[in-house]
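A favour, since you know our structure tokens better than I do. Go ahead and set the record down below.
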Amino acid sequence: MSIFLFFVGSWLMAVGRYTWAYFSVPGNVVKRWNAFSVLFLSCFSLILVTFAQNFSILMKKQLNLKVENLKKITEQHILLSLVAPNGDMPEIKAGQFVEVKVDNAPTVFLRRPISVHFVDYAKQRLDLLVALVGDGTRKMATLSVGDEVSVLLPLGNGFPMPTKAGAKCLLVGGGVGIAPLLYLGDRLKAAGHQVSFLLGARNAGGVMLEDEFKKFGSLYLTTEDGSVGEKGFVTNHSILEKEQFDEIFVCGPTPMMKAVAKYAYAKNIECYVSLENKMACGLGACLCCVTEDNKGHNRCVCSEGPVFNINELPWQN
């Protein structure tokens, strides 16, 4: 209903703009046509977003999951655990994301895209590591055990599995970008690959879920102030010079991902990054999350990503 009201309100604003332009330039056909074009394109874009958000069940799976647990990890992060009561959790690949509907939030019109942190099929549980950065995510932090949450999943393309048997894999994350790496580590380990995590934070207060990551591989840490692990950025960690890796998987702030990509280029290592562009529909309809590839083409991060091989991106210069 909130999406519908948003659409109606925006449509009325577009109609008002067109009406004003039409009557303010009564003798100018070109300006009338331009005003009509603005109206048409605005309405068409809004229809696409509204359709994608409300009728995406035709293309993806929409589940009503129940809150099993909500744990405060830091002052700005929560771990939200959701379960599928009917045992119908779909197959989810590491690196994919979900769109969460936020109810009872007047300022939140669209679902919120959240990375899949972990999936436990035996318990039919989906874990989401959520950064509290806006009205939508802060409202999610007020959920209680037993609350029902509408979730659209799975979305996007996940990380590919290495083709080499027993590949040495380095998973690099910064900030909330560590979210998709835990499930990726689980999947890689289950497939017989060697897993190492290299996680960065500003200080000790930003280091999260160490024990969980240690379950699936070796853990290396950096903090900018040196309070935990080695001092500096992830690209300053000594492990990068001591070990040779077959593949690297990265998620975090763009400058960090570009720095790791530069290292991977220099070492000729296969590298995949998960982009964190702002998203709306999550299905490639609204085009608000596009990024330019190395051929100058726009790619929808939500539908064609969020995972890309660094060779697809213009990051080599």
